[in-house]
Amino acid sequence: MTKLLATLLYAAVFVGRSSVHAYNSILEQEEAGIESNNLKGTTQRELKMSYMNGGNSKIGNYFEKYISIYDRCCVPEFVLGGSRGDCKCPVRTAKWWIFDWYSKWEAKCESSITAKSSIVALASSNDDFSTLVTLLSEYPDLVDALSKPGTFTVFAPTNAAFDEITSTVATLTEDQIKEVLMTHVLGSVVKEADLSNGAAVDTLAAGEQVTVTLSDGKAFVSAAGNNNGAAEITATDLQASNGVVHVIDKVLIPDLN
Question: What count of other Cβ atoms lies within 10 Å of the Cβ of residue 6?
């Protein structure tokens, strides 16, 4: 009996170690993209983000890899028990009794995978947002918030948009620049289909709203006071793990008095 119990215990430990090794191997392959050279979802994003082809392709591909992993393995509606045929993580549909691997994967979804496919990661993957990224980097709390799980909408001005107001930015204080940046961020996901003419939406800047205008098949957004005119939304619904990004051709400047 003692010999039998010892044999069973050894077998359990051996299987457990082998399973842990297999799990870690799958986890590493999933993140490395070994089995997903043709990332699902990339085609649609590439159509929406074709203007990014001239940007930093290496960083762009890095973002695409992680947003694909997030889409396939971390999206909330595909939690434990859901259908996850495209995700190779073995714990996507079962919680094995001996190892809490599901929680381990969920922890990665809530931390590294979200951060590497976040709005900040998306912006950093495109050279045309380098001015925006540089300004954001001066405010670690904003970078932190837009890198974590959440439901945000960002109206992202291009470098050309910032170039138009270089002299204005030079006159602003650090607090005013932060307010300008926060005016571009909504605390909820507002996709193209949700935009309605005349809608006024609260931003993360205290007391500041932006107003949406639809005209002649185009969409515009402006800050209260309209100090820099209405910005045209030139690209919509660029998906990140924690929200969406709409590209705009002007910087939104609220009344800073």
Answer: 10
Q: Are 91 and 105 in contact (CB under 8 A)?
A: yes
DSSP state of 125: T
pTM summary value: 0.75
Are the C-beta atoms of 173 and 182 separated by less than 8 Å? Answer: no
In this structure, the strands spanning 152-157 and 243-248 are: parallel
Cβ proximity of 153 and 189 under 8 Å:
yes
H-helix segments, 38-185: 42-48, 57-73, 101-108, 114-116, 119-124, 130-136, 140-145, 159-163, 166-170, 174-183
- For 34-86, the pLDDT digits (tens) are 333 333 333 334 435 444 444 455 556 789 888 888 887 777 554 444 444 55
What SS3 state is found at 41?
A: coil
- Whole-angstrom distance, CA of residue 142 vs CA of residue 47: 29
Q: DSSP string of 193-205?
A: GG--TT-EEE-SS
Mean pLDDT of the chain: 77
Quote the CA–CA distance of 124 and 114 in Å, as a whole number. Answer: 14
Cβ atoms within 10 Å of 52's Cβ, excluding its own: 23
Residue whose token pair is 């986890």 = 27
From 187, 112, 179, 167, select the one nearest 139 (Cα to Cα).
179
- In tens, the pLDDT along 180-210 reads 999 999 999 999 999 999 999 999 998 899 9
- pLDDT at residue number 43: 39
Q: Token pair for residue 2?
A: 């003692």
